[in-house]
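Below is how a single chain appears once it has passed through the pipeline. First comes the sequence as given, then the structure the pipeline wrote out for it. We keep one example in the README because the format questions we get most often are answered faster by looking than by reading.
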Amino acid sequence: MSAENMGATEHGGPFDVATAATVVLDAREIIIGWSPAAEALFGYPPGETLGRPVGDLLADAAGVAALLESGTRYPTCSALHRDGHPLRVALAVSPLGHDEGGATWLVAAVSTPRLDQWAGDQAMLNGLSEQSPIMISVLDTQLRVKWINRAVEKEFGLTLEECRGQYISDVLPKGDYLSEAGSPPPPMDQPFEHVLNTGEPLVDLRYRSPTDLDPFHYQFWSSSYFRLEDVDGRPLGVCETAVNITDRYVVRQRLALLSRAGGKIGQTLNIERTAGDLAELTVPEFAAITSVDLFEPVLRGEDPGEANGRTAPHLRRMAERAAGDSVAGAMPSRLAEYPAGSPQLRCLSEGRPVVGDRMLAVPLRARGTVLGLVTFQRFPPRDTFDPEEVHLAEELVSRTAVCVDNGRRYVREHAAALMLQRDLLPRRLPEPTAVSVAHRYRPAAGPVGVGGDWYDVIPLSGARVGLVIGDVAGRGLRASATMGRMRTTVAALAALDLAPEELLARLDDLVVAQSLDGEDDRAVGVTCLYAIYDPVERHCVMARAGHLPPALVTPDGRVEILDLPAGPPLGLGGLPFESAGFDLPENSLLALFTDGLVESREQDIDVGLSRLRDALSRPGRTLEETGDSVLTTMLPHPSEDDAALLLARVHALSDGQVASWDLPADFAEVARFRGLAVEKAVDWGHDEAAFVVELVVSELVTNALRYGGAPMRLRLIRDQSLICEVSDGGHTSPHLRRAGQDEEGGRGLFLVAQLTERWGTRYTPDGKTIWAEVPLSGPTGMPDLFDVLE
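Resulting structure:
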């Protein structure tokens, strides 16, 4: 057989004697042998062909010898099928070299379509072996290399002779599979074993490693695996195909990193968490180590300091993450120091990215201000940072810088709001005899924890005390400022001794007027509760504007939420407010609170009120202990809303601390009642105040007789001061004025004002009460009477 025909006639070729039509000729080209395949191809049985010239079948053949001399590898010619249809066949002729009269030629014939298909298959196999960019490796059932194509040899610097018979894990460079969707990457030879054992193909597994040709850089491949089987389905081995996707993979990962950055960075105003998010996002995909450093003033909400190439004062490490860390990127901050001339200090001073040996320093710049820097580091075999990666790092750091700057501005606003709120809320509440108080305030958790809840205790005339609690919607500086304005307004209205429902009505009018004038509408919807407790009558009157009613704890530990008429929130206008009165036993406890204490997304208000009742019902505790216990019970975790609590334990004045007399409409009785008042002051042990009491009672009683009407009554109350009150049925309030030098009268109230701590008028349903408070303890501070008159 000629060498040029070996590939066609060997096992599996188109002219394989086991499958091709074979014809044996003698020296005269007479058919002396006819195979079953020849019968199948031409349609003639052996009895009709043996002994005939082969030219009877091959119409345009010039003879077998001539075919060999033509030099054509697989000459073709026409033939006729037994049924008459033409055939186009290709021939492979081989001389047998027998003596004359014996077998001389072996002719193998196939249809030309079969030859064309075989030639195409051969070209494809040759292309896969020698020209294909796709790497192909064939392993046996022991995962030893049987064959690799030229692409594998070029990619890894190997030859088939070097790696045939070796385990694949010993041939390829050590690398790792890249995990998908958070799953752990498989061991190197696990895909081969999986495919070999299950027959299930694996597609597009990502593999990363350096190569012997380039040991200092990572290459990335997309690999697929399928099992090779014989005709009976028995495993013969595994075939792996792989494509180098380094460039495409890097671009895709950069785009994916930017996409994830949009969903991860910027979700919080917490500066430390933002720094940690950037570090966690970029390691290990973009860098082996990422560290974030900020100027210390940024953490306080201030503008950062200046930096130069030699020093960077007040630079603090806020986050650091390295490949393999199992913890988040945030960390307790520590000082970050860099040597002079380092990439980091150059980055800060020049305000631009600086690339070192596998190190990249990028300034954290927002709104033209450098807030700190981010350092990315890599180790071999990772590439150094190329220009595209520098641009990517700038984009990531720029997004982070905006968030850090927003956090810095929040810190500044939050600090200002806290300071404002501390200034607006009472640092120390008054301590009237009528009540003992304790108070608690818990800011809300989250970006702007400062809110608009407030409370107050306001001493009133007649030893009474006003209790206030309110809630401004919203949080931040605006809510705190509104809260301060509302608290000041309530205190000013309370000084007029208005009834609770009247005070809320006037407060509502002010809010409506300001919102209509366009001055401010932030107070619209504010809730408020105002209560007045009278320790003489042991009675409390209160009204509310959209606020929750208070809880009353009786001395026996019973707790109830008071049934108080519900008024509208402030600023709605046109709706009345109603008050309700309650007799309070001695040592009863009133708990005034805002909705943040009892209501949240996770807790319905009814459940919160039930828990509050339980927290208040525990006996044997001081007010401070009760306040701590209530906050611990009601707010065990940070809340979304701020909460305020005002506890007031009420005390009654004893009968021995109050003296009162009905006044007849007779000027002649003034002296007698003046004497009774002085006598009572002396009985109470306040001789030093007797003169002032005598003068005040004389003036107030005289004014009531002159300008008021029946019924009239004089009352003395011994409290922290000695309170003189004269009530009458009139509604005209006296006015303080300074009399002229030539006037004989008009100096009475002026003297009262000069000789007492304070004085005023309050109106009642039956008339009015003029009152004055005479100091009792310490230096009286009374001016000389003649100095006052002058």
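The CA atoms of residues 348 and 539 lie 69 Å apart.

See the next section for the split statistics.
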